[in-house]
Request: fold
Amino acid sequence: MPFRMKTKDSTGDAPKRARSADERRMKLAVACSASGVNLVLGIVKVLAGVYTNSLSIVTDGVNNFGDVLSNAGAAAGFAVENKAPTRRFPGGFGRVEYIVSFVMAIIIMAVGGGFMYSALDRVFYHPVVTFAWAQFGIVAATIAVKIGLAVMFRLSWKKFPSDVLKAQTADSILDACITTFALLGLFLSRYIQFPVDALIGIAISVVMIVSGLKIAVSAFMKLAGAADLARVGGIKNLCISQKGVTDARVRVYDFGTKYAEATVEIVWEDGSRREERAAAERRIADAARRKGISVTFVRSDEYETTIAAEERHKEGQ
Reply:
């Protein structure tokens, strides 16, 4: 399988390097800013929750502390993702993003599980919750802040596609919803003696655990080498759209959202000319390269072992 290796700088690479540097700075700025904002939100919510004795508000605040760690992890991932390939890491460091996403998911699930236990405990031993309009208003204002963070992550993700930025966008929206339900529990505690605050805390914990589990499964599948169906399908459709191509067998080796390598075996119509094949392969390679995919063509008439031969060998085992 081909690998990218370090090459000497060229004038043509200057715009690409400049864009990568801008992307790195922007992602780092977004992640670091979000980490600082979440730290302040966490402190505000925990203090408000302690003052009112509301578990759902405290849970929401500690969830923000988890966001601080995930934002810091994202910043660390962004710092190395564009690092040039080395002899030890010939595919670059793009897969660090998947590791960061997986760690973020573990943090989310751990926080959700811890407060699930606390919320269940409150169902049986429910203390009095003290409602205060000042704390209610302060926590309500944090919802707007979280929505602002979600917009910031969304805009950054649209400009620079990234699984981490996508996960941070979803997490910010989820946090805004969690805070809304936490406030609902605090408000209803004025009129309902039943520990509604604890029930809302349980609901928040379940949402956190499910959200974290989805992110963890997605990141684990990528780290474990699951098939990149989007890229495989895209390259296959690109191949079949060429004149004279009847089928294509594609394997993609994922090195992150920005770079991948693919081996492609094309099945041609009988009688197709060599010049037509070469021109089609160039078009496919150029189109894939613009998407960050380096394509190597495997020709059964030139190589003893092809992708198709390997698949037939596996089927016969």
